[in-house]
Amino acid sequence: MRDIKKASLVLEDGTIFHGKSFGYESSTAGEVVFNTAMTGYPESLTDPSYEGQILVTTFPILGNYGVPPRREKDDVSEYYESDHIHAKAIIAQDYSWDHSHWQADRSLSEWLREEKIPGIYGIDTRALTKHLRDHGSMLGKIIVEGCDDIPFYNPNLENLVAKVSCRGVEVHGEGPRTVVLVDCGVKHNIIRCLTRRGVRVVRVPWDYDFTSIPYDGLFISNGPGNPDMVDVTVDNIRKAMETGKPICGICMGNQLLARAAGASTYKLPYGHRSHNQPVRRAGTDKCYITSQNHGFAVDNTTLPSDWEPLFINMNDGTNEGIRHKSKPFFSAQFHPEASSGPKDTEFLFDEFINML
Q1: Which residues form the Carbamoyl-phosphate synthase small subunit N-terminal domain (predicted)?
Q2: Known catalytic membership, residue 320
Q3: Are 120 and 169 found together in one domain?
């Protein structure tokens, strides 16, 4: 017989959802967001872009395929997107205590307990998601039975990029050309996608002045939080733009490149977090299904005259990428490297490599 404790999610507007604990038994707080993907919780939990957030999964069951082993391949984690869980907690309608997958070496519950991350199941995640869609992402806290109450925590008030970025320069892969990767919270599959294409990747911290080292192209990674907090990176990108060398950005990288160009960003009501976001390449009828995880977006109306949108979201018309009209600078708001999610747009890595 399992000793399952009660747990509650308390939203900042006073709404309370009652459920049961299946992870680490402790109180926690953060920004409550939802993801409509059907699979991929190991990748999502270890995605640094979820730093400071409580993740709600709309797919009704969690944990049914367990957790893969932690091992490295090509200098990075083989199955995860970073070296630890970044989400503050995870919420599901139902949790499968009995998992089944040929790669699994432990359950999701065991993993959460190892990394001291709470999890709740047994609440109506459909009602919770509709509430967040109507009122926007909001602050929340999880209180587990027998644990102390805690205050709300707003992760968007601090520089989360500085919190998740690497602390020193790292080199991954080898090849005749060098790509500087600005780590704003990079997912490991971005590194895999670059090194598989035969380039040497120099991974640098978010505030590192990479303009002082030789390189053939600049890559700006994804990352969590508010892009307005990352002025040091924006200043370095502006200096890099003066060299004319190729630049590519993903997610946060799209927002930082836009800010370096002179555009502005804004917070979306509830963001895009899923595997099924349709985007259209601007000026064409080509559409792609993409994996996304972001709460901020570029304001298309503020792009300078020598820049233009590269992709547009087909659901709400928001920006999904930008490009310079004459120079080799472009970026995508979605995740062409997926992990997890569709790989329909991985060709963007090839486009960048061909520019070097």
Answers
A1: 5-143
A2: no
A3: no
